[in-house]
Amino acid sequence: MAVVAELRATFASGKTKSYEWRVSQFKAILKLTNEHEKDIIEALRSDLNKPEHEAILYEICGVKKSAKLALKELRRWMTPEKAKTSLITFPSSAELVSEPLGVILVISTWNYPFVLSFEAVIGAIAAGNTVVLKPSEIAPATSSLLSKLIGEYMDSSAVKVVEGAVPETTALLEQKWDKIIYTGSEKVGRIVAAAAAKHLTPVILELGGKCPVIVDTKTNLEVTARRLILGKWGSNSGQTCVSPDYILTTKEFAPKLVDALVRELKKFYGKEPLESLDLSRIINSSHFNRLTKLMDDEKVSGKIVHGGQRDKTTLKIAPTILLDVSEDSLIMNEEIFGPLFPIITVDKIEDSFNVINAREKPLAAYLFTNDEMLKGEFVESVSAGGLSINETTLHSATLTLPFGGVGESGMGSYHGKYSFDAFSHKKPVLRRSFAGEVAARYPPYTPEKQRFLKAFLDGNIIDVFRALFGW
Prior knowledge:
Blueprint: H1 2-12, H2 19-35, H3 37-48, H4 52-78, E1 81-83, E2 92-100, E3 103-107, H5 115-126, E4 130-134, H6 140-153, E5 159-161, H7 166-173, E6 179-183, H8 186-197, E7 203-206, E8 212-215, H9 221-232, E9 246-250, H10 254-269, H11 285-296, E10 304-306, E11 310-311, E12 316-317, E13 320-323, E14 340-346, H12 352-357, E15 364-368, H13 372-381, E16 386-389, E17 403-404, E18 410-411, E19 413-414, H14 417-422, E20 424-432, H15 447-458, H16 461-469
Parallel strand pairs: 3-4, 3-6, 4-5, 6-7, 8-9, 8-15, 9-14, 13-14, 15-16
Antiparallel strand pairs: 1-2, 2-20, 7-18, 10-13, 11-12, 17-19
C-alpha cells in the first residue's frame, strides 16, 4: 500500500524524531480544534445527535487537554531515564532511551470519534512516529471532517487519514505496522489481533465488556443517583465503553435506588425524555434494533420499572431502568452499549463480588459506598481495566492514570505519559569505560577463576578474598 510506503520513507528520514516537529503537530491539533469547534460540534450532532455540552466537554476539551499536556511534558518524556548499575559492570552508567516504533495504525471508533481518534494520534506523534488514522465509517460526518482537517493542518507526509469501511480496514490490516491500536468491540478486536500476529505486530486493544456498579446502602443516595445518570445516560446515552452496564445492590435497597434515579432523571430530562435535547440518539438503526430486542426479550420485558419509550424515526430510546433482571437473559449476556440499565439484587452487598468475578473482566468497575472496609475489599477483589469509587467514568479522563483493559476487555494502555510509553521502545543503553578489567572473565577458564567469579556474583566478600588469596 502506497500510503504505508510513504510513511516509512518519512520515518526513515528522521524528521518525526525531532522535538520541534512533534511540538509543531501538537500546535496544529490545537489550532484546528480551536478554529473549527463549530464544525466539530455539528459533525458530532450529525452522527450521534450529541448535545453541544457533551461535544465540548468530552470530545473537544479532551483533545485540547491531551495536546496541551504533551506540549508541556514532551521534553521531560523524551529525556533518557537513568538506571542503576551493579558491581558487575563497575565502573559504568545505564539509561533507558525512548525511541519511536515506526509507523502506527490507529483504528478509531464511532462513539467518541473525535477525542478517541486524536488521543491515540497524539500519543503516537509524541513518541516520534508516523501515523495512519482510520476513523469509523459508522460516524461518517466526523470521519470526513477528520480527514479534511488533518490534511489541512498537519504534516501530510507523516500523518494520514484513510476513510472507508470493512474493505479498507481489511486492506490496512494486511500491511506490516509497528504497532496497532484499536478501539471497539471484542469481535473485531480478535480480527485485529489475528491480523497483527501474522507480522508479529504488537497491539493495544481497547474493548469493553459489562462494566458493573455496586451501590451500597451506606451511600449518599442523591449524589449516587446523579453520578450514575451522568455516567450512563449523560455519556452518549450509554454508548460508552466505560459506561456502567448494570447495577448490583441489595433487595432491600433497590426500590430506594430506583426512586432516586427516577427523581433525578425527571429533573435532568423532563417527563418526555425523547423530546430532550440533552440526550444523544442511538448511532444507527442496527444498534437501535439490537437494543429494542434486548428490551423485548420475554425474560426482561416485564422488568421495566421506568422508561422503555423508543422512537425508531429519531433513533432515540428513553432512559430505561429494569429491576430484578434474570442473569440468563439476553441483556445480561452481552455488552448493552445503550440507555438500558438493569439492576441485579443480592442478599448481601458482599455477594456482588462473586457476581462480578463469575464474568469476564470488565473495562471498568464502580462502587458507591461510605464503608471504608467495603472499599478496600472492592479494590482487592475486583479485577477490571480501571476502578472508580463514588464516581463513574472519570478515571478514564484522568491523564495521570493509564487507560486500558484486562483479559477480554483489552490489552495495553495509554493516556498522557502512558501514551508516549505505549508508542515508544525503551532502549536500554549501558556505558562503560575501559577500566575495571577482571581477568577471571576470560579464558583459559580455571577452577580458581570460577571460584572467584562465583563468590563475586554471589556478593560474598569473604569468599572473594579467599578466592583471591587462595585460602
